[in-house]
Amino acid sequence: MSCRHGGWERGRVDDGVTERSGSTAGGSREPAAPSGRRVSPRGGIDAVLRAAVSNFAGVGYHATSMRDIARDAGMTVATIYHHFSSKQEILQAIMASTMRDVIASTRRALVHAGGSPSEQLTALVTAWILFHTDRRAEALIGASELRNLDASGRRLVVALRDEQEAMFRDVVEHGIQRGEFATRYPVEAARAIINMGYSVASWYRVGAGVTPQELAARYCELALGVVRGPHPVAR
């Protein structure tokens, strides 16, 4: 998932079937926000989400129909509509839940980190990289499908991204205040570190010659290099 930026294009919903999105003569109703949905650890909702993740990551949001999701979830399209009002709502649920999961993971890492900014940044980056190697499909969807969220879904996901970015930025700024980091660009440094993690999901494969833990250690070294600022060239 990339950092927040402007100029998003609102996605056109195209499920390959007629959507039951509660449209009225006054216009289409926005799908209900997924944040209030209670997802059972078993049953239909999880099956729908797993099937949607597989299809969205494989061929993209627009190329996936509700029939594709229903087929891979082992149910009918009509059954999906008992759980989600539209393909758009499914996309929102995936992206929002993924962001909440990674925020929880990085927050736990930060709570258990040492007291120095370097230790805290190392803990954040480790959790960030491990998440993006373990949850590659969801991360790929987050990186590529933001433009296809409607206005309400985009506001929700962008707010969650801002929350995650603030966690990194606060650690970088704390390091600058302590004299441990020397970068003159804390906002850009935090975003660069975040984007390094996002990119991992696009190329990392199990058996690629480096374990997730080894990769995390390398990215921690890179992240610390970013925040420690330029070093004078030896003459």
Automatic annotation (TrEMBL):
The name under which this protein is listed is Transcriptional regulator, TetR family
Q: InterPro entries, alphabetically? A: Homeodomain-like_sf (IPR009057), HTH-type_TetR-like_transc_reg (IPR050109), HTH_TetR (IPR001647), KstR2_TetR_C (IPR041490), Tet_transcr_reg_TetR-rel_C_sf (IPR036271)
Q: Which residues form the HTH tetR-type domain?
A: 42-102
Molecular functions per Gene Ontology: DNA-binding transcription factor activity; transcription cis-regulatory region binding
**Where are the membrane-spanning stretches?**
none
Q: Which residues bind DNA?
A: 65-84
PROSITE patterns (UniProt xref) = HTH_TETR_2 (PS50977)
Source organism (scientific name): Pseudofrankia inefficax (strain DSM 45817 / CECT 9037 / DDB 130130 / EuI1c) (Frankia inefficax)
The entry's keywords: DNA-binding
Which residues lie in Basic and acidic residues bias regions? Answer: 1-18
What stretch or stretches form a coiled coil here?
A: none
Annotated region Disordered: the residues are 1-41
**Highest taxon above the source species:** Bacteria
Keyword DNA-binding belongs to the record: yes
Q: Which Gene3D superfamilies match?
A: Tetracycline Repressor, domain 2 (1.10.357.10)
